[in-house]
Amino acid sequence: MFLEDFRFPGPTMPEYIYLTHPLREGFFEQPTLLESVVMEEHFQYLKHAAETGGLILAGPCLDDTFGIIIFQAENDEAARAFMFDDPSVKKNVMVAELHPLRVSLQGR
Description:
The chain is α+β, with helices and mostly antiparallel strands.
């Protein structure tokens, strides 16, 4: 690849990460019916964000410790709103912590 072939990407929105942790001990081993319903809503919420272009990555850790959501938002306020509108957070199944992030490398 020659330098003249390189193109800088256009301006992008800032990236953020939020981690989700269950509020209840035993959530992963035996979720209640309500928790299962809310987690399906959580999945659909993130799926919609992926389809509309704001979500970069989301998924649970397989050791049942936390979930990770990486996304773009216009600013800190919009990022907080996205996190707090997540049904798992809004309905008190998960607690979340938000952090600004810079994605430096991203594979395909």
